[in-house]
Amino acid sequence: MSKLCSMSEAVSSIKPGAHISLPGFAITRCAMAFAHELIRQQIKGLTLSQCVGAMDADLLVGAGLVNKVIYGGGSLDRFGRLANINRGIENGTLAADEYSSLSVAFRYLAGALGLPFIPIRSLMGSDLLNQLKNKESEDIASVDDPFTGKDWLVLKPLIPDVAVMHVQISDDEGNAVILGPKWDNCEQVKASERTIIIAEHIVSTEIIRQNPESTCIPGLFVSHVVEQPFGAYPTSVYREYDYDSDHMKLYVESSCSEEKFAQYLQEYVFTCKDHWQFLDKIGSQILSTLHADSLKGY
After folding, report:
1. Under CATH, what is the fold of the domain 7-99+159-288?
2. Model confidence pLDDT, tens digit, residues 25-44
């Protein structure tokens, strides 16, 4: 059964206050078109989780849609820090549970496996663990190893309401292919109640079946499928396009203050009825320079 729909329809399925798991890693394969539409529809009170904080999360926080982030740190790679997230944490308008990126991945893994908790060593002795303890987090605990009697730190599973995955290829049923690094995306999908796929290309199921081992997201987890070329712009997508350095610098400059960021949102989100209009504003001449080299992938 076809699950193909518009971005507006997919986003409208998300309820205020939902927990959304995002796919991005710094400035790579971020759900930017999805984030823009969330902002247009003003779906607020969100919790975001992400192994490594990225541009999509920072944009949503800057737009005032997010109450809480669960993440393993992050940045805009060479372009600088996640200014909106950091400012929200510093001024107290954003709650943040900060872990190591590995421990966030473990929490998704626990959710994917249906476990009540998962043991972990990597946080032991860290300031991150001390901060979580000082906040009296309900997502950490300790148990006795039934085999050795030793004390183990355990983490509560992450079970998002919706996982949003930006992929290179999908069919209209949501059977999706991620080329290049997958990070913890497969665990995010399996841990979540449902998944929304944003695909650069929609192909037939017959083509997907020609290489079944490449399908890392089965359609049975998917509720909505959206075809959106350049849907991660201005971030990069392996074998599709590189990030736009000039726009990244503009974003960083705009996010240095709430006033400047409001102007950015007005110019590049609110005045565009959809992502196609946003891409028209950027211009085909700029987008054409970003296409990935067929051999290198970037």
Report:
1. Glutaconate Coenzyme A-transferase (3.40.1080)
2. 999 999 999 999 999 999 99
